[in-house]
Design a protein that fits this description.
The protein is mostly helical. It is built from 15 helices and two strands.
Length: 434
């Protein structure tokens, strides 16, 4: 793993920057609304359009990465994300009012296109780089930690930049994307493929084979990932609204409070990635325990309408989410062959983006209702994730063929062995004609 440390540094910069590109705007949305003189709904679209276009394009990016290589997709995606940030920042700087808003929205759409081919492709690339499952798990823990670190940093950095100039969070994105681009180009060495990629019909057939054979637990993991992001961003939205409306906390101070549960999530992700190793049973049970902790903390929060209780207990719940996410990453990455890994992990990333996009609007509809109802629904969501982990996630142990291409190759090799004299077939030697 030491010989890949600079590759990991470069790859870890991608989730940090992609997270900053979206989450830095959340604490300054009211300020953007005032500067552009638009409605709160229009401002919320700056977040939504980024997530929706990423959800739609992530599966395509996954297929392209399986077909043409991970780095060949990541590099142009970072360029597109940088261009989108430059368009949004330039419009905010040089234009005013409604006209500025629509150009910024177009820039955010470009950023979403770039995001679709950046962070979601990092996960399968890490799986390709290592043969040892222990190293894969540890590396995925580092990647997930960097993603969470971006969430910790974003409310603080976004608020700090906006205190100087309100559009600086937009302007920061192209600079950060170019930095990550340089690191990826010069430091990331992707493993060479020994074989030609399959044709599109063969690829589709192999994906169907994966989902047919392992669909039950893969679908469960997709749903659990979406639930984790739904709860996380829902509660963060609740905290952001409550801290500003009831406690008059704004700017960097509000960002620091929001960063408390995210810091617990970040630390938990790092420790979980180091501990799970290649033990898939441990991944399952650690994920279940993390979701159980999340569910209990949300349930107790529902009983006490007190901001100190909410922040304290959701810090515990955030640690539960942090323990779960590296387990999900590792199960998906190590559960399918390299030929389909990009597409399957892209589907997983799409579900996570769906959770991100659903959390704030759902909570905004419930925030005016009874406190117990809001957190009861969030706790029920966590409980569903825990039950899915317990009942549906049953990963294979050992070195069994997962599905698709590798299994077919083994079957072809077995058939070749039967036809060729002198080969061992299922533990016995073919009889010699002599």
């Amino acid at each position: 793993m030491n010989d890949k440390k600079w590759d990991l540094v470069a790859l870890a910069s991608i989730p940090v920057i992609m997270t900053l590109g979206n989450s830095m705007l959340i604490p300054i949305l009211p300020q953007i609304e005032r500067e552009l003189k638009v409605s709160s709904f229009k401002v919320s679209m700056l977040i939504t359009v980024y997530a929706v276009v990423a959800i739609l394009l992530i599966p395509l990016a996954g297929y392209l990465s399986d077909r043409f290589g991970r780095k060949a997709v990541i590099i142009p995606s970072l360029i597109i994300a940088a261009a989108g940030g430059a368009v949004a920042g330039g419009a905010a700087w040089m234009m005013n009012g409604n006209a500025s808003y629509w150009i910024i929205l177009a820039g955010r759409l470009l950023q979403g296109i770039g995001a679709a081919g950046a962070f979601p492709i990092v996960i399968p690339l890490v799986g390709d780089m290592f043969d040892d499952e222990n190293e894969v798990s540890k590396s995925l823990g580092i990647i997930e930690t960097s993603n969470t670190f971006g969430k910790v940093l974003s409310p603080i950095l976004g608020a700090a930049l906006a205190m100087w100039l309100w559009y600086l969070p937009f302007m920061a994105i192209p600079v950060l994307c170019v930095l990550s681009l340089v690191l990826v180009i010069f430091l990331v060495k992707t493993p060479k493929k020994d074989e030609e990629p399959p044709s599109f019909p063969e690829f589709i057939a192999s994906i169907r084979s994966v989902l047919k054979e392992k669909g039950r637990w893969l679908y469960a993991i997709f749903a659990i990932g979406g639930i984790c992001m739904f709860v996380l961003f829902g509660v963060l939205f609740y905290l952001s609204e409550t801290l500003e409306s009831e406690f008059k906390l704004k700017g960097v101070l509000k960002g620091l409070v929001l960063a408390i549960p995210l810091a617990a999530l970040c630390l938990s992700s790092y420790l979980a990635g180091k501990w799970i190793g290649k033990n898939k049973t441990r991944m399952k049970w650690l994920g279940f325990i993390g979701l159980a902790v999340l569910t209990v903390s949300l349930g107790v929060i529902g009983l006490f309408d007190n901001i100190y209780v909410v922040v304290s207990l959701f810090t515990l719940g955030g640690a539960g989410i942090g323990a779960t996410l590296p387990c999900l990453d590792a199960l998906v990455t190590e559960g399918v062959d390299k030929e389909q890994r990009g597409t399957i992990t892209a589907l997983f990333s799409s579900m996570r983006f769906i959770g991100v996009s659903l959390g704030p609007p759902v909570v905004s509809l419930l925030i005016g209702s009874h406190h117990f109802l809001l957190f009861g629904i969030l706790a029920a969501s966590g409980a569903v994730g825990g039950l899915l982990t317990l009942l549906a996630v049953k990963p294979d142990q050992g070195n069994k063929p997962t599905s698709g291409t590798k299994q077919k190759k083994r079957e072809r090799n077995d058939n070749d062995d039967v036809k060729q004299p002198g080969k061992y077939v299922q533990g016995r030697r073919k009889k010699s004609p002599l």
